[in-house]
Amino acid sequence: MATPSLPPLLTDDRADQLRRALEAAHYTVDRVIERVGEEGQSGLQRNSTMAALHHLGDARDPLACLVRLFVLQQPLPEVLAHSPFEGPLFDALLAAGIVERTGAGDKVRAGVDVRPFSSPDDGATGWVVSDLHPGLDQRVAPMRPDYVLGLSPASTTLAQLVNRAPVATALDLGTGSGVQSLHLASHADRVVGTDLNPRALQHARLTMQLGGLDPSRVELRQGSLYEPVAEQRFDLIVTNPPYVMSPPTDERLVYREGSFTGDGLVEAVVRQAPAHLNEGGSLQVLGNWANLAGRDTTERLADWVAGSGADLWVIERERLDLFEYIELWLADAGLSTSHHYGQRYREWLGYFSELGIESVSMGWITLTLSGREQPDVTVESWPWQVEQPVGQALGRRSRDLTASRVDAGALLTRAWRLRDDVIEETTGRPGAEGPEHLVLRQTSGLRRAIECDTALAAVLGASDGDLTLGQILAAVAQLLEVDEHDLTADLLPRFRRAVEQGFLE
To answer: Taking 80 as the threshold, does the pLDDT of residue 97 lie above it?
Structure first.
């Protein structure tokens, strides 16, 4: 078992002091937004501090000082920076590099980002410790190779797609600053967070300390992929691995790039997951995968789980051509204005050409150790809007698949209920006798839709959990004056599909 190789930024006592200081200053998500205003918050999403600074004005209270120091990354006179913290604590922050002197007069600045965190979806709260945002106020600077990413759109997306059902054990693979471990601790009895980057574990430990999490419940280990948990199995594994497919270089950013060729890192995460899951357990990945010339992507991804007894559900949320993909990640690395930009761009193009990569898909991967004799492999494109958090809907997939695969006799003798989140939509010309289109749509989760004819709409609408499907089909056949056998043969496959897609339970 590998443990973090760098010493903690703060001792438990000092971290507890810092947590109390942050609490005393009311340094929380809601209070920060209140102080910088909605305009300030919107500005920060554009990497601009001007609106937030305008709303703060000349305020010098502890909360205003913390916002300027950590959120807005502004240098402060040491006397102001000292104000939220009691004497010895400020010296400990300086020694740890959490704050540092600028060398210009008596001013100090943040050395790391300490950001308030709150999730309304699962109740997780605390403060996330990471490296400073390098692009604030349009400052563009290359990142250090062992950069530790903090709260980001990717971390939020992963948190929203994770199934929050209670579990005994969970693995946060590639924990980074510890964001996902905070989430997991809200519904897992025990969490293990792993990372190859020792600085990431150093920051994640302080995140856990500030969150008041018991080390016996949340453990951090250093190592690559599943190496730190070689003999362990979990009920849930979540990861936003360093999936960026960049050409080999000595300047890799550990938080986003591994040493694997192409999408080999994501493949390794998926292939090795069944050996680390309990029966019925799931792996949930936010990542990307390559689309290769002359190779069917569905067949290629299915090969990753062949013989494992695991279902695989891959949802492509976006597909980028090579130029979009390269420009995205060169900008992310702060290289947009670098004189090396053109050279690096051509290196990436050459790398993708060598590997036969035509485009890159970005999205969600869910693997479930179902133990099914014929595991399900579904690869689909779903670029449309979903209702967040989508984790509950993704978590129902295995159960819905099991229900949809019963034989025709069991399907007909069960009483089904249309889920409460399903609504009916009709469209047609004004004054027409009936609608031209009738659609049943989910209002949560993936927000899937089924276009129905009169018969299917009647059967689904009557599915309220009282009558069996067979009884409903008999009644609808009589109402429509059609042969019950023919109606059943026509509707049964479509009804089965509605069960599989989560319309019924």
So the answer is: yes
